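Next comes this protein.

***
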Amino acid sequence: MTDIDKTGNLLAQIPKGEGKGLPPVHLWNPDFCGDIDMRIARDGTWYYMGTPIGRKAMVKLFSTIIRRDDDKYVLVTPVEMVGIQVDDAPFVAVSLQADGTGESQVLRFVTNVEDEVVAGAEHPLRVELDAATEEPSPYLHVRSNLEALVHRNVFYQLVELAVTRELEGKAWLGVWSSGVFFPIAPQPD
């Protein structure tokens, strides 16, 4: 991955798959080659050497070889691994389609790199509250230990779909997807 030109073009070879699925980055354990000046901003914009990577195909390619090892994000090929900076989450959930209602509702999200994710037991939703501002930051599990920050407009859609359910003796607002209830916030008194 050290072979990236100034416009963010990947020069190293990544094995071509059969057009199905993602590269098996979890199986690749090459030597760590250091950190590179690549950053994913909170809004999902990818930067290389301080400049946004404008080629969507390049961003999509990089998004297939990202991995999180503990709290460190890396881009991995079979021959090298480099560290990158991620401001919040590597993906952003930018659209939502809700099918059905109640416990049989299914929530389908699309990320900024066009990954489609159905919320459920394998892809849970969670909401963190900022301790100082109490502003919610909702996340959707995408794959392995990688998440998407749910865009504010999409979060508003979730809130519109929210229903009340009692959890551990307290009323919560939340949404159903694939038979799983995901709490968003305690029901105001």
User: Anything to note?
Assistant: Residues 5-19 have pLDDT under 50 and may be disordered. The first strand starts at residue 32 and ends at 40.
